[in-house]
Amino acid sequence: MSHGGYGSGTFGTSRAAAFASWLALWQDSHKALRRRATTIVSLIAIHPNPGVKWDEMQKQIKKGSDLARKHGAENVTVLATTIGGSATNTIVTLSTSDDWTKFGQVQQALMDDPKVQEFLLEAGQIATWETYVSQTIPDI
């Protein structure tokens, strides 16, 4: 179930811009951390709509994974949560980027591709796709 905000399509450009500004300030004030390697991890939790056939889901996930790889996403991996409380039966797609700059480049390339826009419209008809983006914390 989506709760508005993250991944529901209502996050909005202004919140994303505000987050990017906050992140830039935080990174500037934590220069020592920035010198250490961080990895950006994108996780998409996929919840198929009732009645959607597994074959149809697999085709959409494959299409999305191929588009992500085409535009520079690294380590694209698809997982099925088999034991996980409320996350059981959730399909998860993970990908990584070396840093925030690379992540931004991949996202921009994806959003500029008309085939990605078409994919997003199609995929939204058969499942809820919740996106979460995290960064590793060095030295912990």
Q: Can you give a write-up of this model?
A:
It is a single chain. This protein has 140 residues and is α+β, with helices and mostly antiparallel strands. The chain has a single domain (37-135), classed as Alpha-Beta Plaits (2-Layer Sandwich), CATH 3.30.70.100. The protein is 44% helix and 23% strand. The chain is built from five helices and four strands. It has helices spanning 13-29, 31-35, 54-70, 100-112, 114-123, and strands at residues 40-48, 74-80, 91-97, 127-135. A four-stranded antiparallel sheet has the order 2-3-1-4. The protein is globular, with a radius of gyration of 16 Å. The chain starts with 12 loop residues before the first helix and ends in a 5-residue tail after the last strand. 10% of the residues are buried.
Q: Which architecture does the CATH hierarchy give at level 2?
A: 2-Layer Sandwich
Q: Hey, roughly how much beta strand do the residues contain? A: 15-25%
Task: Specify the structural class.
Answer: alpha+beta
- CATH third-tier fold name: Alpha-Beta Plaits
**Overall mean confidence score, pLDDT:** 83
What order do the SSEs take from the amino end to the carboxyl end, as H and E? HHEHEEHHE
User: Tell me, what's the shape?
Assistant: globular
Rounded radius of gyration (Å):
16 Å
**Helix amount, in percent?**
40-55%
Oligomer: single chain
> Domains counted in the coordinates: how many?
1
Kindly, what is the distance between the CA atoms of the first and last residues, rounded to a whole number of angstroms? 32 Å
Describe the sheet with the most strands: 4 strands, antiparallel
Strand runs, count = 4
CATH class: Alpha Beta
Biggest sheet, spatial arrangement of strands: 2-3-1-4
